[in-house]
Write a structure and sequence with these properties.
By secondary structure, the chain is an all-alpha fold. It is built from one helix and no strands. Keywords: Membrane, Transmembrane, Transmembrane helix.
Length: 48
């Protein structure tokens, strides 16, 4: 029998896990693109 720590949160159901991944991608992809564009334009600003 497996021992579980009472302080560990319960695992999310499969459908909930898909929703969580989708939400992280919904926020993460535009954020990553914005950081990329910021770095690209900052490089242009300082290098001419």
């Amino acid at each position: 029998m497996a021992r579980t720590d009472p302080h560990d949160p319960p695992a999310a159901p499969s459908g909930r896990r898909v929703l969580i991944v989708f939400c992280w991608l919904w926020v993460g992809v535009p954020l990553a693109y914005g950081v990329y564009e910021l770095a690209r334009k900052a490089t242009q600003l300082f290098t001419g």
